[in-house]
Write a structure and sequence with these properties.
CATH superfamily of the largest domain: AhpD-like
Number of helices: 8
Largest sheet: none
Order of helices and strands: HHHHHHHH
CATH topology of the largest domain: AhpD-like
Radius of gyration: 17 Å
């Protein structure tokens, strides 16, 4: 998939749409799309070229250059999502709603899929995204809409 600006008339929405379409094709595509989306966003703002972005685990570089920091990060992640007063499912739905308010379609998709795996229903996901819209505004609803197309594709 070519994500250069010239093939999308410099249109970030067109570039994102192409990226989202690509991400829908496979779960591996989702991780690669997430990595590229960040670089595309930075590239649009700074003019950086985004054609040679490496694919795969975005944290691999930390494993290689700063494993001590990666351990701190993963320990914090494990603490944040462990069962406590809130269930892991509730915490995952909260994180998904936060990603929606931040405009991260890939984050919403990944966290919604994780929430489903640990027992969340379609209705719970939709209600959490309603809260994201209430708190985050119109941007969150568009992020949620793009994500919902991937999470619950229509049968039309």
């Amino acid at each position: 998939m070519d994500l250069s600006r010239k093939n999308h008339n410099g249109n970030p929405s067109s570039m994102r749409r192409a990226l989202f379409d690509s991400a829908r094709k496979s779960s591996q595509g989702l991780l690669r799309a997430c990595n590229k989306q960040w670089f595309i966003s930075v590239g649009i703002l700074t003019g950086l070229e985004v054609n040679n972005i490496s694919e795969g685990d975005p944290l691999k570089i930390l494993r290689d250059v700063d494993p001590e920091f990666l351990k701190v990060f993963t320990d914090t992640e494990n603490l944040a999502f462990s069962e406590g007063a809130l269930t892991a499912k509730t915490k995952t739905l909260v994180a998904m709603a936060i990603d929606a308010t931040h405009g991260s379609v890939q984050g919403v998709v990944a966290l919604a899929q994780e929430a489903i795996e640990i027992g969340a229903t379609k209705e719970e996901i939709i209600e959490a995204l309603r809260v994201a819209y209430y708190i985050g505004g119109a941007g969150a609803i568009y992020t949620a809409a793009y994500a919902l197309q991937t999470i619950f594709p229509s049968n039309k």
